[in-house]
Every structure is written in C-alpha cells, then in structure tokens.
Hints:
Elements: H1 2-21, E1 28-29, E2 33-34, E3 46-53, E4 56-59, E5 63-64, E6 67-75, E7 84-87, E8 90-94, E9 103-110, E10 113-118, E11 130-135
Parallel strand pairs: 3-6, 5-11
Antiparallel strand pairs: 1-2, 3-4, 6-9, 7-8, 7-10, 10-11
Amino acid sequence: MFSTRIAALLAAATAAVALSAGCTGGQTALHGTPQAGPGSAVPGGTTLVVTEKEYSISTSAVTVAPGTYTVEVDNRGKMSHNLNIKGPGVSNWRTPTLSPGTTSRFAVNLQAGAYQLWCSIDHHRALGMQMALDVH
Length: 136
C-alpha cells in the first residue's frame, strides 16, 4: 500500500513538472521520474536542502517530522556527485549525476525511522560523503 502511495506521489510530481517546465525530455531522477529544472515547482510540504561537496553531505536539518518533502540537492563541489537515499519505504533512490554547480529537486514521502544518505560515485562514500537523517 505504501509503494502505491509513493507511486501516486511520484506521478503527481511528474505531472506538475511536465506542466510547469514543459516536456523537454530532460534528465531522470528517482525511478525514471523526470527531474525538475531550476526554479520548477515540485509538490512537497517542506523543502529539505541537501548540500554536497568534496567530501561531505549536509542537510538543512538532521531530524525531521514524517511527511512529504521537496528534497533539493545542491552540488557545491568541484566534482560530479549524486545522492542516494535508503530508509523506511525507500529501498535505494538515486538522483542523476549532478555536475558541479547544479541542483536536482524531487518529492519524497518520509516515514518515521532512520535514513542513510550518500554519494555512490567512485569512493566518495568511503571518503566521508554519507550521513544519517532521522525522521520522527
């Protein structure tokens, strides 16, 4: 049932992105869902900003309440990075590879529990590009 709600949420996000940004056939994020372009609106109750750079990941909050979030991943590094998320109801989501200075946005429904965030490019995770996010 939860995966049905996620699928519905992602479908709504896809429709909103297509309406606000036009069907441009851009990059994909999270299980093939079109990625929002800069300035595009993505449904989500609150924005959670994730900043990546060599070799760290930080968020605007390390503890958040359960609910729907617009996750904004900002690559402020000099190398390409991506963001992987794993936790309750999220088996392993990954953004596309983000070039330096680019941003990706997507909507996600976070359940109560612990989530892991990391960059899976090369050995970035082993070099410190990982963190925990608590949802309660």
